[in-house]
Amino acid sequence: MEDLQLNVPLLRRRVPNLTVAAKAAGLRPATVSNLCTGKIPVGRAEVRTLVILASIAGCTLDELIIRGNGRGMIETGIKVLDLLAPIVRGGITGLVARPGTGQMVLLAELLNRLGKRGYTTLFWKPKEEGPGIEEVVEEADGICLSLDEAVHQILHFREEHDVILAADRAIVLSGEWYTLKERIKEEGARPLTIFLVDPRGEAVDVEAPYGPLDTLIRFDMELPTRQLYPAIDPILSTSIILEGAQLESAHLAVQQRARKVLRRYRELRPMLQIQGADKLGEADRILYHRGERLEAFLSQPFYTAEPFTQRPGQWCSVHETLEDVKLLLDGKADHLNAEELKNIGRLPL
Fold it and tell me: Which protein family is it in (predicted)?
């Protein structure tokens, strides 16, 4: 019950003189005030009080009460992200890539998937046109062309939905991002989750291209040469959810095992290409091939790419991803070759 909050912006917008209205409905103004400020947790409020507040606001209890307002994980159905770099609800995610590695494709796919999951998706469109911009525009629920438009749409939609805002890194460099944060502060509002991208590909050469991030998604230029998409670096991409151990222990255990295997696989890959597999010890040879399978398995068809690939997009729940990755790590898929695991959903076992 601790993750329940009152939707204060919605309440205040629909009931301008809340104190008077609450008193007229038989509620103590002090109680209502304490609920709005959080001094009284929603979980400890009387059901009668909440029902009356919903009634005078002309909304349902589901609209009045925000559930799960904590900074947990947003499930995307994208295996590599949910496993290795989970998106933080209410956090800032930065996509760092050189041109042509697929950051705008991934952004469009994220807006597509999260829009279907009940999030309102907004795109603060850059002033300059560039590759992939129009694809992102097509997937967004709303388009913002200025700071004022972004503030207006965020405040409007977040009363009833979590909002996803995708924007160019330029808003950080210009200072507009900090102005936006100041203008959208509201008690009890639903979370605003930010995706920052760099369409020009300049951020990859900067040490801290977006400032502090909750999730870093770094792209790997080598993966597309082997037709592995999304081309997300499984070692350098990470999330504070993993560092803060905010996930279930089973998830963390699989994630840590997977990253360890992938790191060693990447160390062995150049050696094997030069010297051949015969130069590897038995343990390293087994680990190498499991890492190769895992790397291939973390590729995945996207919904937004269906017209080009003629391959249906795949959604893999976190539970399914963890289950399949564990099987791979345990050697249960050693009879499969890496090519069979490219661009699929679940393991073909």
Answer: Belongs to the ATPase alpha/beta chains family.
Alpha helices in the chain (DSSP H): 8-14, 18-24, 29-37, 47-57, 61-64, 79-84, 103-116, 133-139, 147-157, 170-174, 176-183, 240-243, 249-275, 282-297, 306-309, 318-329
Cα dihedral 133, 134, 140, 145 sign: positive
**Which architecture characterizes domain 92-213 according to CATH?**
3-Layer(aba) Sandwich (3.40)
Q: What is the mean pLDDT of the chain?
A: 89
CATH 1.10.260 fits domain 4-67: yes
DSSP, collapsed to helix, strand or coil, labels residue 338 as helix
pLDDT in tens, 102-114: 999 999 999 999 9
Instruction: Say what the pTM is.
Output: 0.82
**95 three-state secondary structure:** strand
Among 103, 108, 102, residue whose Cα is nearest residue 123: 108
Q: How many CB atoms lie within 10 A of CB 157?
A: 21
C-beta separation of 4 from 67 below 8 A: yes
What is the percentage of the chain residues whose pLDDT exceeds 70? Answer: 94
- The arrangement of secondary structure in 249-341, i.e. its CATH architecture, is Orthogonal Bundle (1.10)
Phi then psi for 255, rounded to 5 degrees?
A: -60, -45
Pairing of strands 73-74, 87-88: antiparallel
**Residue, of 129 and 294, whose pLDDT is higher:** 294
Check residue 87 and report its DSSP letter.
Answer: E
Whole-angstrom distance, CA of residue 58 vs CA of residue 263 = 55
- With bands split at pLDDT 50, 70 and 90, how would you rate the model's confidence at 100? confident
What per-residue confidence (pLDDT) applies to 138?
96
Classify residue 139 as exposed, middle or buried by CB count within 10 Å of its CB (0-12, 13-18, 19+).
buried
Instruction: Please tell me which residue, 174 or 280, carries the higher pLDDT value.
Output: 174
Q: Which residues partner with 215 through β-bridges?
A: 93, 239
Rounded distance, CA 129 to CA 199, Å?
9
